[in-house]
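in:
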């Protein structure tokens, strides 16, 4: 009987650890690290041909919409980059809701294009 009780107790503890790891909360430090990785990938190529550059919304304001837009070269691993951006945006939105964050509710306009200046991408607006 004692062994059955110990076995049952081990099963309960193990199942708690499984559920705990599946619902991991990300810290602000981990979000900052992910942001750094996104920034590093974005800046990994020199801008010489503006037709090779795209942009994507980055961040999640508590009121809705992105904090900004970030340029990236289509010559990087685009799928990996966009997945990191998607993860970052999702985690920031979850953090906003969980911690009842607030911000200005100003709309951030997307750029109309990207041009290259001194090797860096620069947004153009209409």
């Amino acid at each position: 009987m004692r062994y059955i009780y110990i076995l049952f107790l081990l099963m309960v503890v193990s199942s708690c650890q499984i559920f705990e790891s599946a619902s991991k909360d990300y810290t602000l430090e981990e979000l900052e690290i992910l942001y750094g990785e996104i920034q590093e990938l974005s800046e990994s190529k020199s801008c010489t041909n503006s037709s090779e550059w795209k942009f994507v919304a980055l961040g999640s304001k508590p009121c809705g919409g992105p904090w900004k837009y970030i340029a990236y070269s289509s010559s990087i691993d685009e799928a990996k980059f966009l997945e990191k951006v998607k993860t970052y945006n999702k985690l920031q939105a979850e953090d906003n809701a969980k911690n009842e964050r607030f911000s200005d509710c100003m709309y951030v306009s997307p750029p109309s294009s990207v041009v290259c200046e001194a090797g860096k991408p620069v947004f153009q607006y209409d």
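note: The chain is about 45% helix and 15% strand.
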